[in-house]
Amino acid sequence: MRMRPTLSWAPTEDLPPGTTDPAPVVDALSSGGVLVLSGAGISTESGIPDYRGEGGSLSRHTPMTYQDFTGGAQARRRYWARSHLGWRTFGRARPNAGHRAVAAFGRHGLLSGVITQNVDGLHQAAGSEDVVDLHGSLDRVVCLSCGSFSPRRELARRLEEANAGFGPVAAAINPDGDADLTDAQVGDFRVVSCTVCGGVLKPDVVFFGEAVPPQRVEHCRELVRAADSLLVLGSSLTVMSGLRFVRQAAQAGKPVLIVNRDPTRGDRHAVTRIALPLGSALTNVAGRLGIPLDDETAGPG
After folding, report:
1. Global pTM value
2. Bigger pLDDT: 130 or 9?
């Protein structure tokens, strides 16, 4: 029997209450050396829903797993039909105030790095540099046979040509760029193969049930070791891929600060959780630090 990955979490203990005072974040940034770990919640104000917050996509949608994707052509047809449609909307998303604040903190030398669990490229679009895409990025495609990479825009063009007239109306777009479509809407959508070897193409993202590459994990662990504090933005920390860095920081005696409206799996490791919307909270923090935010910039292509 195939095990399903952990997709949800509910508190089993009394957690410290959240606060609405962002002063601890201001203090941490004032000292510098802050490592940011961001999750889907930072992109909701850009029109990309999160997984687990109010109205999150997991209430109606089970994300594609690596096992399902590699297990059959029909699953891949369903994924690529939904992802191809979702990409049209996903690729038009623009950075919001939260992304722009993180970029501004970086420009002013207050950050030691940025790790994101998101695959939307919005931190980079806002101007953040040297971002670690923990779960990969949707703007690149990899062949599972020969390992060659290609731009997502190139695949989008090939899928358009192979599926002329395909344009059903999606019920919703999900954090992984997957659109909600029925099997009838998917129909006989045509999947294209690798142009190098004819192999199976997959977005260069870590699916649920798939391991983050070990060298990427170790790089993130090095960033945690080098940081003075860890600032978690918009992540429930339900899955171990992000939670392990919170645990590492706490075990090393480094302050962990969380900005997330709902309780998280990492709250008991944190010195504080600020229960505010990210855009307004980080804009407030930037104002207290005297740091202006750039205007909106172009989103991922």
Report:
1. 0.88
2. 130
Closest CA to 190 of 163, 216, 209: 163
Closest CA to 142 of 132, 133, 151: 151
Active-site amino acid positions: 135
Residues 99/124, Cβ–Cβ less than 8 Å = no
Question: Which two three-digit tokens encode residue 42?
Answer: 């930072």
Contact 286, 293 (CB under 8 A): yes
CB count in 10 Å sphere of residue 265: 21
Predicted confidence (pLDDT) per residue in 199-246, tens digit: 999 999 999 889 999 999 999 999 999 999 999 999 999 989 999 999
Residue among 211, 216, 232 nearest 278 (CA):
232
Q: Please give the C-alpha separations between residue 230 and each of 86, 95, 253, in angstroms, as whole numbers.
A: 32, 22, 11
Q: For residue 278, what are the CA distances in angstroms to 41, 60, 123, 229, 260? A: 8, 24, 14, 18, 7
**Separation of alpha carbons 244 and 217, rounded Å:** 10
User: Can you give the three-state secondary structure of the chain, one letter per residue?
Assistant: CCCCCCCCCCCCCCCCCCECCCHHHHHHHHHCCEEEEECHHHHHHHCCCCCCCCCCHHHCCCCCEHHHHHHCHHHHHHHHHHHHHHHHHHCCCCCCHHHHHHHHHHHCCCEEEEEECCCCCHHHHHCCCCEEECCEEEEEEEECCCCCEEEHHHHHHHHHHHCCCCCCCCCCECCCCCECCCHHHHCCCCCCCCCCCCCCEEEEECCECCCCCHHHHHHHHHHHHHCCEEEEECCCCCCHHHHHHHHHHHHCCCCEEEECCCCCCCHHHCCEEECCCHHHHHHHHHHHHCCCCCCCCCCCC
